[in-house]
Amino acid sequence: MADFQLYNTMTRAVEPFAPADGRTVRMYTCGPTVYNPAHLGNFRTFLFEDLLRRVLRLRGWAVEQVMNLTDVDDKIIRRASEQGRTIREVTEPVVEIFHRDREYLRIEPAEHYPKATDYIPQMIALVERLVARGVAYQAEDGSVYFAIARFPEYGRLSRLDTREIKAGARVSQDDYSKENAQDFALWKAAKEEDERAGAAWDSPWGRGRPGWHLECSAMAMDILGETLDLHCGGIDLVFPHHEDEIAQSEAATGRTFSRVWCHGEFLLTEGAKMAKRVGNVQNVADLREQGISAAAVRHLVFSTHYRQQLNLQPEAVEAAMKGAQRVGTFADRLAEARGGTRELAAAAEELERSASEALFDDLNAPKALAALHVFINRANAELDQRGSDAAALESARQAFARINGVLDVVPEARSGLVAAADGAAEVARLDGLVAAEPPAGEADAYDAWIARSLRSRLHFRRQRDFAQADGIRGMLTERGIEIEDTPEGTRWKRR
Known about the structure:
By secondary structure, the chain is an alpha/beta fold.
């Protein structure tokens, strides 16, 4: 089997990768801060990590993934204070939304979803180790800081020269006194608003709460051990978050914190990074309202390499929807086929080879997706031959299932039956139907629109107005809706 290669942010190179024990990849992926629903920019990162875990399994390894849920930080406390609630009351509904959105986009569940508030003892213990080693100190207000001047390796991941860090940089935007403006907070002394929000705990340094960076190190090492195989996240986390994780973890243990670091690029909307502050945020609920399937989103995201910026443009979304629909139509045909040909088996073998090689080469999903569509072209041509080779057909099914098992770009099929008796229930003019676009809401509303259109078609057929009836069929076909007239009525299916 081909070697698996991955770009390592630490070395700035694509390198061979394998788990340290040869069996299980111990992977930590930074999850959402649960004060607002995660936006599509966040989910581009989560989709890249989903692709990664599936490719690792395709390569033959098991995966133990930890994705943290940050449920205490400045933003959450501010939100709780504004709403007169506790941090738990703010975060729990958002955690539920995250998992619902994750499931909609078919992102496999991680093995662990630790919440920061469940790991306070481990965080305090980590700070105690750092204080004991002389790389952390308590400031006058009771907060504890990491002294980056006492950790000479600081800056390796981001290639940062610590002499260039100025007061006011993101790494030093803390509201607490400290010896050096470059130092970052490990443990923050509690304020009155922290106490009101239920975001303060007892510690050797008095009441307080953990710093954002500390949370991930403590949870990662508690669950996966002091040295991880792989640590992932968005490119915006390289500095200061991951740089600070390395410093506090390695200063405490004297060991490499993560053997490899892997980061995904930004999702852009019309050329601007998706972020709440620029007002161009879209979330998964928007996708559902617009009738955009998870398969189409995955097709869109995987059409661009994870280390390249992805611009979310209407044309790209439309192309992804059509691409996913094409894959779904082929999946139906392959499932219903009776036999294949020798050439179909050859096409299946080529799909597995080319797609696997692409995926094992730093997750080249665009190349793998292209290989899948090439296979669909070849397979459709062979299925047209109506061959009788059952073994060849089974090879094609298995190859398609293995590669789609990683990309997961077959849309969910929806279908229904409009009974023959329903045709008299509704009369509609064709031009009205053509002018009215299908609803951009939930799938059930779209399905109801299909049923209304088909009832109108049945009416026109009974009136022997075949031009109107054929116009409705054409309108539905253009939108990827297949219909079949049967003695019971008209059956329809869409993806």
